[in-house]
Request: fold
Amino acid sequence: MKKSLSWFTILLFCLFSLFPMLYVVSISLRGDNAFGSRSLALFNSQSTLKNFSELFLHTPFLKWMMNSLYVSTVVTLSGVILAATSGYAISRYEFKGKKIMLMSLLTTQMFPATMLMLPFFIVLSKLHLINKFLGLIIIYSSTALPFCIWQMKGYFDTVPKELEEAAKLDGCSSFQAFYKIILPMSTPALVITGLFSFMSSWSEYLVAAITLQDPELYTLPLGLKSFQASLATQWGLYAAGALVVSIPVVVLFIMISKYLVSGLTVGSVKG
Amino acid sequence: MNALELKNITKSFGFNTILKNVSLEVNLGEFLVLVGPSGCGKSTLLRIISGLESSSTGEVFIGGKNITLVEPQNRDIAMVFQSYALYPHMSVYENMEFSLKIRKLPPVEIRNRIHEIADLLQMTPLLQRKPKDLSGGQRQRVSLGRALARRAPVILFDEPLSNLDAHLRQQMRIEIKKIHQIFKSTIIYVTHDQTEAMTMGDRIAVLNKGQIEQIDSPFNIYHSPKNIFVANFIGTPEMNLLNGEMRNNYFVHKDFDFNISKDISSHDVVLGIRPENITLSENQGIAGTVQFFENLGPNGLLHVHTGNEVIKLFIQGQNIPKINDKVFLNVDQSKLKLFDKKSGSLIQ
Amino acid sequence: MILFKKLHTFVFLCVSMIIFSNNAMANTTIQLWHQMIYSHREVLKKVVDDFEAKHPTIKVQVTYRETEELRSAFQSSSMGGSGPELIYGPSDQVGPFATMNLIRPLDNLIPIEEQKKFDPLALVKFNQKTYMIGNTVGNFLMLIYNKKLVPNPPKTLEELIKIGQSLTKDFNGDGKIDQFGFAFNFTEPFFFVPWIDGFGDHFMTEKNQPNLNSKAMISAFGLMRDFRDKYKIIPKECDYEMANSLFKEGKAGMIINGDWSWGDYKSAKIDFGIARFPLINSTNLWPAPLVGTTGYSVNANIEDPLKLKDTLELLNFLTSKETQLIFTKEVSTYPSRFEARLDPLVINNDILKEASKIMEVGKPMPVVPEVRAVWDSLRGQYQSVLAGSATPEQAAQKAQEEALKQIQSMNEELTPGPTLYLVWLLFAAILGFLLFYIATRIKKFLKDFKGANKFPYLMMAPAFISIFSVIIYPFFYNLALSFSNFSLKTFNNWTLIGLHHYQSVIVDPKFYEVFLKTIIWTISNVFFHVSIGVLLAVIIEQVMPKKNLWRTLLIIPWAVPQYITALTWRGMFNQEYGPINIFLQEYLKLSPIQWLSQPWTTFSACVITNVWLGFPFMMIVALGGLQSISPDLYESAKMDGANAWQRFKHITWPMLQPVIRPAALLGAIWTFNTLNVIWLVSNSGEPADQTHILVSYVYKAAFNLYRYGYAAALSMIIFIILIVMSLVVNKINKESKESNS
Reply:
């Protein structure tokens, strides 16, 4: 009884979590008149891969993908490095201003996005960083950082202090102890933190829309959005694109899901 | 020359003083045990020696050199941690290799050393395993091996055996002691377990409330404790401590009194006598009733109730009195100790 | 030192890589932003390639933006002093842009004789100056019919209804309509206002003031409702996409759509004809579609004369006869140059001939910025009529009132008030506090920095410098804006005025309504996130075999980018074609829910979407927490005779608290601040702006209504609310922790 109820709940929620993506799959396979169909069936005789071939052959989709990949990779690397170093310092050391720093990290999460959009643009254009990946990268990495630092700090809190002490007695400087001992053993947290940075930049739209104006530089969300004109959306293309955008992230997620449980420590933050 | 010297070490956090003016000298190749109840400051002292913590005042010398301000990584001290602190992402071999590599030893030398230690500790088959695949005892061995491979002039042990079960602990005690005899390195060993201290130390320093109460050989610590604390802390079962008063060569207790041929002015004292220095007698001595008998195998511990006090003594053989039997106790006068009640220190 | 050098080289490499990667070979680059639909974009690309071939020194960078985004992006980029040289968009952009001085008058750039060659409708004037040149005239709505289903177009409303009713059919008798007589994006005012003229009035006065409270308006409201409820010839819920795809699939006989859609229908191989809106029988008047133009304007920021010259070169090329004819040929647009209209391509085109007839009854598209307020208030009230929450009379009256109010707040040029001194005082206080704080702490800090804690400071420096430099400036900029009169009229010369915006937020009942909604939104979301997350985590951890499999399947929503999620769910909630309603009807035999046209159902749709998005995070957090609970506890509870529910209540739930609480707080902050879901699922607050939370409300105020100062003040208030909220939560957490221990 209890068992069957559990099975039922889990299966129900699996359906709930999978269905929207299956819906996107079915739209992407429908060809031209993608939207209007009153069938719940995923495939039918008219299913076609036309949208996908169109996507890769006749739109700059691959170019956008490379752009997104470039931006996200740089953001992920810099985000992880900066989050790891500062998360470590906050977790391990007592210093003046630590409390204020922790509070200010949390505070940044409370800024409404609308508050930052316009000033971002003004700063970037003053620095001539409009239409440059660098501008986007700076904004992405700094806005993702607070959460990443918090997350890394949470993980380092769980690492026994004796390890660095042992390392120091073994002859390491503070920095060597950090990067030779603590960093390599923090893979789960690093992977998770990297994933968050990656995801946030892989799917960010608002900031990209104001900073990137050259279609050559479009990231995926921007490109995808361009299939969506105000009065004539290319639904089939859009769905195919959405699928191609989502798949790498989903695959990444599944690959590292074993780290998620052990590496995600936001929850165990000691306040 | 001393291997290590501490001069007037004081450590305080705010108003809380952990160590008060501790001075200590450790000889070259000596096995010194720091023992004391938890919170006595022994681990802090060890950490100050290692450099992981800095003292508020005072100085640390190693081999005659003042290293008070030297960073831990430059002190050339090895340490075995209570939690072993093995690097979880490295194999046993890499764990041992790590510090040698940091110190840029030639690879051949590194390999030789590690294999030598591994053979000695019988852990050659474990070399390629990760710490998570080892048992508690094996991990303890690895952390020992890691410290030994350093060949550091001073090795610190911070309660290394407290996470092991009793049987393993006994084995390791002997092993560590043997290794010490082979390598002759200077060892400072912190423990709260006085048996460990007694069996291992060349000398024992007993710490209490941030101060060294007594530092001496195990024999002297046991047989001539300097004060009530040491007397009580060292030895299982602990020494019998009886509160009383000296009156004209008589020790007067609420339940009994007896003559002590010592010339002591009359005041409040504590009389200490170890259980092995009391014997049963037929009809004279302190009267009491048997309350309990602890069978320890080769001998047993008899609890005798004298009215207000319970006195414990060792007995052997077949003739064990039954509970509630009336018995008389005889005290070996030459072994008893008298402490001043107020100051706690030994009177004679 | 060596490290520094290495770092230096590295930074240099990075920077140069980024700079050179998009360095063009040409001498000038001209940016052109446009909002052309997909098929027109292809033509534009060809034309621009052609231009570049002829002018090898000029590179043209063409950027597509959706209309609304084009507008807000152009605004913000011009504020930053840059922006594209040419912008192509509908004529109603001219008013706001010209008011803000973002675009320049063309009169001294293009000679009068040249201007005379264009249809006056294509020369968009504002305050007697020309600001835009259209390359097509039109952009107007008309009746488009599928010749297969409707051989002859209806001339009158009665005919339209009759044809519509005969075509609206349920072929397979399942109670659902498979073919409609008529379909159009009837919830959008742009598609609605032509009908008003059919009843004898226009929605704006000659003087460009709103004229919404008219008899004609009330009748038109009624007609729209009747189309849906009385004659039942249009789908119950029908946005642009729906209407368009129904028509393209031959499932709707007639549609109201614009000239931009012709190309689309052509390529969908629909044999279609076009006609005027049907004559209204009762008045004998023609409904009047708004005729406008889409065209090019020139950025006011261009300073380099050479660049201006090249820009004009491009402008001339894009509006030349040849270019116009290419567009006519490829996508059937109606050229704006008189000489182009004499070309056989135009003359022999039946559709264009018909189009010019339709335009005869049209009215020019108003370009004043006020029209935005009119659209906005009309949209809200109109949608209330459709939702049945207001009568046509009430709605007409209210729409007029709101429009006037919005125009007033849009146009008000606030002047410094007495509270300005308070602002200066506040700034002084902040500065004073900072100075005091720094003065008292700097010594300790420096000592700490030079002493034992140099290492942690160095480790943190890069991250914190980048966070603060990216966050701090915007924060203070926003703070200053919130005290300023920055709006449409004061775009280039705003000043600080005091606490005005804060006062008007605090006395606005709408603010409290939205605030309440935001709280309901946050609480319901966090409640479902936590309860679903914990439930699933407990089941997975304690009951299910193959934990990894279930965990993997259930975290998928987390991995999908938010905007994709939001748009997908919007599609799923569609009343007619959305799988949710299909499921409700086919499998549960329930009547379909009009998800996206009622305020509370739309709100629920947003909540469902956001719950989908957020529960995996909580599930993972809870799974992590569960693993740290020792199994001994459960065993001892079992021996004590606790059942499953008691074990959960007394062990699992309390033990999860330390993990769940901070995650829930973080989740609450995120949910409070999330824009994507509300904005995209409810299509920016529909129906009638009733689906707003504070953040989307701000977004709308800033970018749709040009009220930047107001929006900034509201942002600050949101920020303060969140700070207070988290302080309170923290305090509660601490107290409960203390009472526990």
Q: What stands out?
A: The mean pLDDT of chain C is 81.
